[in-house]
Amino acid sequence: MDDYVPIPFTLLKLPQKSIDVVLRRMCIEALVELSFTSKAAMQQTKHLGIKTERFIIAINSNEILIDVSGCRDFRFYTFECSTPSHHTVQKPIRVHVGFRGERWETPFFGVRQFLNHLMEIFHQTKLDSLHISTADPECSNELKGMEFGWLSMMSMTSDNNSSQDEDALRQFSGKTDSICLNRNPFSIEPSKQMQMILTRNMNVVSTKCDLNDVFVTNARSFTAFLKIEDVNIFLKHWMHRSDRKLKSAWFDLDAFRWDVEDVLEPLFKASTGFSMGPQSDSRTLISTYSQQSFQQFSFEYCYHSNTPSLVSLFFSHLQPFLAIFSHFQPFSAYTGFST
Predict the structure, then answer these.
(1) I want to staple 69 with a disulfide (CB 3.0 to 4.6 A). Which of 52, 98, 143, 306 is the partner?
(2) Residue 237: what are its φ and ψ, rounded to 5°?
(3) Containing structural domain, residue 305
């Protein structure tokens, strides 16, 4: 028997139904490669109506990483290396695709053109998230004007380069629904500058801030790092409905307090004007992400005729934190924990 020899055929000359069957069996990076071959191929890829599960961008010191659907990465290497004098050498942009280690040379388009192309064929109007570990002006310029569902800045740059972090935060914070910051990058009037960011209408805010920053935060949910005494002050204001938009708040406590009473006593200290119901039975919860054990204590309060609210306190052997919800909801809807 003769060896099997595959017969090449022109994909786009097949009947439309057959084209759809073939394309739907292709992996993400193969579809992207095909869509760049011609306008007809791009339209056929777009015709599939595929919407990616997620669309994430990460900016590092020497690359822009584009994660499409969580299954393949497209890496744009914006710089190849740095000289001993620390002056970065500009190099042509390349794309690293998939697990096969393939590389495309990209002299005809840059990062922005590539992103626009992906968003068109996958029917996206904005990106899911942008993660910045090292702010870079040239990378930021490539993404100017784009909208993101989530902005995360875990900057590791030194104070000498903080201006790049400031510029990136100003540029992208107005184009996102939620932000997560590991530090305040502003060197001049840091509290005032940060509050200009926090007062914007957002869904989720997670950052290191003081009590005044918390009071001006305009979000449905936020995470902050405060002393337990400051949480007590916040709780009094919040129970009086000082912020009707806020639905949940998370606080990482500032010290290890192994006894529940050591946290509850300063937390509810001098909290008058509302009635607090009895403590519910404690429950031990298991995180579905880290498999760590958390202990929950729930308290119910009612201020005047407002709807009862739930205050939940969680403990682990690593770091205690406090979660506050503005109305009753299934516990798993907020935390991802299971009993």
Answers:
(1) 52
(2) -65, -45
(3) 227-339
